[in-house]
């Protein structure tokens, strides 16, 4: 007997759309509704038949597994979870039409029991969304053998799982070229993200490529951060501990939270942003636009990452034999005052 997923594939729509049509809910265009109804008739789909019996045997729960980082002073960096907060909103949006729930689990990135914790979560859910670098490729191969998995902000070339990520290369390249080409910033310091995070690695590689391409640009130093505000503060203190005559003229941060930490520390030390040092971030969180000066950054839709990853996971749960997929979402350079642009600059 045909299932809801068969109808969705044949009609070229999502399972959520089919569900809305079956339950006569609003939010579906007339032409789409008519196409779905025609496919239902063609396939002989019966909502309360075998397909729903199969659905009832599912747990109707997806797992969202995120990492808890520890910073340079071993404290838990709670503000480092802001990315996951936005991702969770996107996941909720994708699950609402089908009525499924989400189980959130926090894994210590350096914890010895991470592998067992992942297996415990897998036993309680129909599929898992795993964020940035929690599990290595070998363990992932074992996990995906029996559990549908989508990596959130993972490496696009991961061979063992579906991946949803953003175009880190384009965003960081555009940002760094803007600093060097538009504002003549030549002495750059880089505040990196955690080494296990694919996002951080991609942004660092793109930054280094741009600096190498400009013969008169120099990387004056770098700091290994954890994507949290305290990392930016630590990086700024390290910079300020050096000779004042050797300060960089730009600090490029792998995310906005670290950039805000940098600017807070520079301001406390009497360093003007951007007159003395330009500062940039990545993500475009709301606080960055409200900070003084407003933060130049790269906008990624973290909520859309969660929504797309969850939609991909539901498709994988419905059809485990789908080929492996990778989706890279676009980003946008947002120029504001922290790089030296005038107020009310427009998106670049």
Unreliable stretches: 49-56, 70-76
What order do the helices and strands follow? HHHHEHEHEHEEHEHEHEHEHEHEE
CATH class of the largest domain: Alpha Beta
Mean pLDDT equals 87
How many runs of DSSP E, i.e. beta strands?
A: 12
* Second CATH tier, the architecture of the largest domain: 3-Layer(aba) Sandwich
CATH superfamily of the largest domain: Response regulator
The share of residues in extended strands comes to 15-25%
Adjacency order of strands in the biggest sheet: 2-1-3-4-5-11
Q: How many domains comprise the coordinates?
A: 3
Tell me what the structure shows:
The structure is a single chain. The model is unreliable at 49-56 and 70-76 (pLDDT under 50). Strands 2-1-3-4-5-11 form a six-stranded parallel β-sheet, sandwiched between helices. Strands 7-6-8-9 form a four-stranded parallel β-sheet, with helices on both faces. It has helices spanning 4-11, 15-22, 30-43, 50-56, 82-95, 114-122, 137-144, 168-183, 198-213, 229-240, 256-268, 286-290, 302-318, and strands spanning 61-68, 101-108, 127-131, 149-152, 162-166, 187-192, 218-224, 250-253, 278-280, 297-299, 326-329, 332-334. α1 (4-11) crosses α3. The chain has three domains: 4-56, lambda repressor-like DNA-binding domains (434 Repressor (Amino-terminal Domain), Orthogonal Bundle), CATH 1.10.260; 61-164 and 302-328, Rossmann fold (3-Layer(aba) Sandwich); 168-301 and 333-339, Rossmann fold. It is built from 13 helices and twelve strands. It is α/β, with parallel strands linked by helices. β1, α5 (82-95) and β2 form a beta-alpha-beta unit.
């Amino acid at each position: 007997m045909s299932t809801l997923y068969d109808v969705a594939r044949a009609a070229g729509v999502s399972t959520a759309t089919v569900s809305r049509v079956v339950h006569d809910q609003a939010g579906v265009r007339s032409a789409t509704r008519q196409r779905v109804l025609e496919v239902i008739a063609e396939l002989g789909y019966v909502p309360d038949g075998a397909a729903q019996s199969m659905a009832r045997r599912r747990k109707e729960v997806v797992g969202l597994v995120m990492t808890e980082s520890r910073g340079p002073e071993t404290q838990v960096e709670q503000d480092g979870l802001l990315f996951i907060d936005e991702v969770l909103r996107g996941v909720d949006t994708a699950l609402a039409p089908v009525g499924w729930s989400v189980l959130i689990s926090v894994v210590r990135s350096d914890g010895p029991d991470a592998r067992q914790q992942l297996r415990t979560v897998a036993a309680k859910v129909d599929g898992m969304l795993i964020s940035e670098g929690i599990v290595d490729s070998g363990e992932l191969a074992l996990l995906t053998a029996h559990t549908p998995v989508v990596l959130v902000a993972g490496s696009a070339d991961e061979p063992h799982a579906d991946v949803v990520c953003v175009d880190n290369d384009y965003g960081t390249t555009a940002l760094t070229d803007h600093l060097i080409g538009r504002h003549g910033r030549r002495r750059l310091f880089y505040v990196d993200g955690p080494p296990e995070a694919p996002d951080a690695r991609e942004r660092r590689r793109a930054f280094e490529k741009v600096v190498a391409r400009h013969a008169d640009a120099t990387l004056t130093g770098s700091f290994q951060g954890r994507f949290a505000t305290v990392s930016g503060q630590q990086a700024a203190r390290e910079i300020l501990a050096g000779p004042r005559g050797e300060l960089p003229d730009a600090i490029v941060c792998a995310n906005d939270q670290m950039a805000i930490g940098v600017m807070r520390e520079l301001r406390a030390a009497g360093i003007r942003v951007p007159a003395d040092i330009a500062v940039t971030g990545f993500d475009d969180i709301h606080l960055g636009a409200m900070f003084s000066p407003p933060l130049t950054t790269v906008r990624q839709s973290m909520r859309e990452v969660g929504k797309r990853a969850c939609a991909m996971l539901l498709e994988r749960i419905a059809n485990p034999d789908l080929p492996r997929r990778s989706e890279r979402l676009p980003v946008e350079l947002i120029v504001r005052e922290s790089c030296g642009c005038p107020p009310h600059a427009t998106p670049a």
